[in-house]
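## Example pair
The file below holds two records. Each record gives the amino-acid sequence first, followed by its structure token line.
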Amino acid sequence: MAHWGIAYCIGPNCNKPWEAFEEDEKPDCIALAKASVVAASALLDRLTPVECALIEAIPVRYPASADIEEFSPWNDAFAEAMRNSAKILMFAPSLARRS
């Protein structure tokens, strides 16, 4: 989950939305996030379903290129993916635990 945390934290947040990123920050941010997603995804077979759902949700947060001007589609896609992840825990709390 540490890789997921890096992918999550390196991106936009309530104090620094995409629009506040400097142009030279975006490529490095997106590259680090994508590398962290790859590292986290390599560990999916060792994680709980909830952890897997969180990891599988994060890639939609980042565009393929830093040349994007309008980030709202990625913000919206990530919000929807996280809502879907939350349903796993809400409707099947036992899935959050390791067997």
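Second record, same layout:
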Amino acid sequence: MTEQQTETAAIQAIRKAAQTPAETTGKGGKALGEADGVAARSLGLRGAVNARDLGGYRTADGRVLRHGVALRSDGLNRLTDEDLGLLGALGLRQVVDLRSLDEVREAGPDRVPGLPVAAIAAAELSASPITVERATPDGMTLHHLPVFAADFDIYVALRDALADRSPEKQRALLGDGKAAAMMTGLYRWFVTDPVARERFATVLRLLAAPDGPPLLFHCSAGKDRTGWTAAILLTALGVDRDTVFADYLLTNERSAAIVENVVDSFGTRGLMREPELLLPVFRAERDYLEAAFEEVTAGWVTFEKFWQDGLGLDDDVLAGLRANLLEDR
């Protein structure tokens, strides 16, 4: 095993060890994600602490996003056996994994109830989109839709920073705003890259199909690709921009314990002299999502034009999303 692989394994071990029941509840036993009036609620998965329901958000026309139909999450590769039971009880029809081939290699394939492990691994260990069809009529279908950018590969940067323990090189790679700039560039790439746009659009088409939801979409941390997918979806449905940002930033509350433990571990294990350099990579920042929306405006002026010309989606897809996901209340 190379040093780089060793450090990657250490990262995964630290993340797994950091996932304790305390992360799924806040003070007084209140589920994280229910604070400050934010409607999204935790799915209660020990191995995916950022898994939550988008249900409860209100649209401009007074309708409400139904609970249990559109779910967002971090990776499902660390699910416990108990988590699999909880996930199976949600009645999901589809799971979408937005992780890259390298991420799956390093962290492992998803655990999806009812699907063979070998079939999942074969699909997710691919750089191209692959679908694993449900094994039974009431089972789940898995779609691997990898979204990754060579110029803004977070995991490559993290590996490079940890493989070379030189504090000077780590600071040169991540310090003085470089980590934040990499993240901002990534979010702009979400909008400008045609392949990335098509992958995000595919998730929306799946949600809009008559037999689409309930559907769960995820990446590794449930923060960047998942966050942008949720932002597009909520905006298209007519959820106000402040709520869209509140849902995005909720990741920081959900993942706070993991981030704190990982950063502390990198310091105490001697991997980094300044582990706080990684915080811009680990955290959701308003500037990142704003950069994506700014790119939408720069390229298409309005979100409606971006929907039509950037994502290649039409009124039928929007009508399908509204029919599938919204309810009068």
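Notes on the second record: The radius of gyration is 19 Å. Residues 98 and 219 are 5 Å apart (CA to CA).
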